[in-house]
Amino acid sequence: MDFRDSPDEAAFRDRLRGWLTGQEGKFPTSGDEYWAKAGEWHQALFEAGFFGTSWPKAYGGQDLPP
Questions:
Q1: What angle do CA 21, 22, 24 make, to 5 degrees?
Q2: Tens-digit pLDDT profile for the chain (66 aa)?
Q3: Structural domain contains residue 55
Q4: Structure confidence at residue 20 (pLDDT)
Q5: Number of other residues whose CB lies within 10 A of the CB of residue 59
Q6: DSSP string, 7-54
Q7: 63 close to 57: Cβ distance less than 8 angstroms
Q8: Are 23 and 44 in contact (CB under 8 A)?
Q9: What is the domain extent for residue 55?
Q10: Is 41 within 8 Å of 27 (Cβ atoms)?
Q11: CA 27 to chain CA mean position, Å
């Protein structure tokens, strides 16, 4: 079994890593404040194209493999 990333997977990983780095400190990571901001976090993921990545494009996803 080959666990190395394909070029597309590596590009996606790099894009996600860069985006996450830019989000550092914007959202709490635990406690009550986390739950209060969870909707905003999910919205930010969606707007950046990182939410529901394996969902069909017809439903707002990217139709990527799981």
A1: 65
A2: 889 999 999 999 999 999 999 999 999 989 999 999 999 999 999 899 898 899 998 988 889 888
A3: yes
A4: 95
A5: 8
A6: HHHHHHHHHHHHHHHHHTTTS--SHHHHHHHHHHHHHHHHHHT-SSTT
A7: yes
A8: yes
A9: 7-59
A10: yes
A11: 14
Residue 50: name the closest of 4, 28, 26, 17 by CA: 17
Supply the pTM of this predicted model. Answer: 0.76
CA 45 distance to own-chain centroid: 5
Q: How many residues does this entry show for the chain?
A: 66
Whether 1 maps to a domain, the answer reads no
CA angle 39, 59, 37 (to 5 degrees): 5
Name the domain count of the chain. 1
When computed from its CA atoms, the radius of gyration of the chain, rounded to whole angstroms, is 14
